[in-house]
């Protein structure tokens, strides 16, 4: 249904493009093949129309059916009045509708802004405003939360949002199932245009948007699939939220579709529900954060299930302790693959034929020969081999700038286009990286990135709080827990009170502090910034 006669999608404003000589190099080397993500599904469907694309609660959905539904959804979106190049905030749990909507949007040239299910009002309004979203896609209810109420607020506060599309009972909005029209000629989507806007963990007050192009994301997907040896015989379980880069594309859902395998989706990654899904669908590959990995390994002690189909467990998002890494094979019977990635681009994988020692003690090496990685000291000079430093990177699938964030980009990228990851690493002679810490102030709580500044900003709104600072402290169960230090007038608000207050401000549950400490003053650095290192020592 791609019509050559249709106009090409116009480039989005506020995107930092790859410099021409790099784009040229990546094309010539064959990293960028001029393919769109919508076409990925098309070619698998042509090859394997009757194979199972998705396992749904009402049975298997074939590639032919997924392809048809994606086309009908794309046509339905255009009929609704959306235009190629429009943005739409997608706020759906991991369901078949997520996959249909994603491919439909990719084919219509409508750019999805991929919110995580746990995001709430603050994040959604910010992302809708920043992207100038024309539509907001939600599930009616999820985990006891009514997204239609949130949608009403979003519409009120963000005038660009003209349409709310609801999976389930639509209330006053548009039903997902009604976004359905006979396939029509679809716009020609430029492979170098932005395919998706991913949401960053964020180092500043609010999340940033990460523009990933069809070309770069397709390369990311295809090569990840090769590294994980994914084939049409694989059944991939999306246990983490589908909107996250890891289960979406590393190789995840998109990688599985690219090779013609089957995808099973999970909204609850607890061992009980995940193990049942693995047994039911014969899952071969899945991806987890370290906290869940530990939980799953422990649960094999009491859950009596057959996990023998599982061949590969990918673990990433936060540092996996060696003690947990060595448990994976004995407990789950699957090989371990560590993945150190970032939505901004660079992915590191341990390889399937790496020695056990590398797999359990490193976070892998870059996906591509064209990934440029530098490890630098505080002055930006390369450290000696094996020494710790900040990871800077540039390459065929790493962004050159956040979306509509010119000022921020001058800090997050070097003048020659390297992304400053904020991660501290050591590089081994084999090229494998060991993540040793982070210089940016993002707290990694159970694999979720939480910006210290964002929580601080909200805490400071409490009437009794004069000043607030937030740091992550090591925690056995969570990796890091969120600890707030507050300077207060009068009585110190209790932890439950502060959490309740932040929730009324619309902060997502995973960002709420796990502990609160009263301090007389906050330690400051020489230039007057909060000295988190000193603070950690104070309250840790
Ligand atoms: C993944 O992506 P993001 O964008 O949610 O978070 C990226 C940050 C990294 O900069 C690093 O600080 C941390 O999360 N991280 C790890 C890690 N993987 C990510 N820290 C230590 N060890 C690891 N294995 O989290 C992500 C994206 C794609 C694949 C996997 C993870």
TrEMBL record:
It comes from the Bacteria. Residues 454-529 form the AMP-binding enzyme C-terminal domain. Residues 43-403 form the AMP-dependent synthetase/ligase domain. Keywords: Ligase. The keyword Ligase applies. GO terms for molecular function: acid-thiol ligase activity. Signal peptide: none annotated. This is AMP-binding protein. The lineage of its organism: Bacteria, Bacillati, Actinomycetota, Actinomycetes, Mycobacteriales.
